[in-house]
Amino acid sequence: MANYEFSPVSGDEPCCRLSRRSQISLCLGLLVLIACAAVVVAALTWSQARTPEPLVWNGTGTTHNLFAIVLGRCYTYTQLVRPGLRSEDCPKILDAFKSAFISKDPCNIKKEDYEPLVELVDQTVPCNKSLFWSKSKELAHQYTWVQGGMLTLEDTLLGYLADDLTWCGDPGSAELNHQSCPRWNECLSNPGSVFWKVISQKFAESACGVVQVMLNGSLSKPFSKSSTFGSVEVFNLDPRKVHTLQAWVMHDIGGISSDTCSSLSISELKSIVTKRNITFTCQNNYRPARLVQCVKNPEHSSCVSQI
């Protein structure tokens, strides 16, 4: 057998060799990358887990299950109470309601925030059917329920949705504040106050014909210019559409009749209305509303004489 010498194949040799300095630099670089990744992950985890404390106010917090209640009321109203409005888009109405105050300072809400919501609802109150009230909410609602044809603000869709509810958000957060919300007198531009002013103005502007207001004559001052009716609604009645305002001064059965149609408080209201070229009339204890009061007090002398 012939003698052959085998030479090492060039592929068996290492293709490259890193210097010790390069190896150290590479290891350090990898360590830096791992450390940076760990910091980023920790920061993201901390920011997600951290829940900022909501601002603290003096009023009660947002009504629990607020959005479910509002959506449910919308469907109830449009499908059962006023089926003529069944074409209203309730999920869209809820979204517009949320957008008005979520993630905003609850003491810096503006009328414009609720405009998209107001523009979504197309509801007309028939002429001669608008009933305003001041400090007489319970009786006014009892009367419209029995009478069947007249409407208070809370008998309209937007008023129905929000009646007796409380709501507010927190700046920089998409969450509701269930701990506390600003009181009506804590800051003027809170979500509830602005909402009711906006829809009260719309309710007044849309009124026509003869409109009514129910006032509480058992109070020393049944008409107040600081009330929603006295500061918003009466000044937004359109004299081109409203020709008469009828005031009903109602007194609690068995209570004190503190004020009547001839009092200074009512005279102030009359002056405001007549200056706006609207006829003003007033009646103490309007009989149909008085009969509603008598349902709970049928044996009282003032009720017996009404029958």
Summarize the structure.
This protein is of the alpha/beta class and 307 residues long.
Can you tell me about this structure?
- The chain has a four-stranded parallel β-sheet with strand order 2-4-5-6, with helices on both faces.
- The protein has eleven helices and six strands.
- β5, α9 and β6 form a beta-alpha-beta unit.
- It is of the alpha/beta class and 307 residues long.
- The radius of gyration is 34 Å and the shape is elongated.
How are the elements arranged and paired?
Blueprint: H1 20-49, E1 59-60, H2 66-81, H3 90-99, H4 111-120, E2 131-134, H5 137-147, H6 157-162, E3 180-181, H7 191-206, E4 209-216, H8 228-233, E5 242-250, H9 264-275, E6 279-284, H10 287-294, H11 301-304
Parallel strand pairs: 2-4, 4-5, 5-6
Antiparallel strand pairs: 1-3
Give me the Rg, rounded. Answer: 34 Å
Strands side by side in the biggest sheet: 2-4-5-6
Give the DSSP E fraction (strand runs of 2 or more residues): 5-15%
Task: Provide mean pLDDT, rounded.
Answer: 88
The count of DSSP E runs of length 2 or more, i.e. the number of strands, is 6
Low-confidence stretches: none
Q: Characterize the biggest β-sheet.
A: 4 strands, parallel
What order do the SSEs take from the amino end to the carboxyl end, as H and E?
Answer: HEHHHEHHEHEHEHEHH
What is the distance, rounded to the nearest whole angstrom, between the alpha carbons of the first and last residues? 141 Å
Shape designation? elongated
Total count of helical runs of at least 4 residues? 11
Percentage of residues in helical conformation: 40-55%
Structural class: alpha/beta
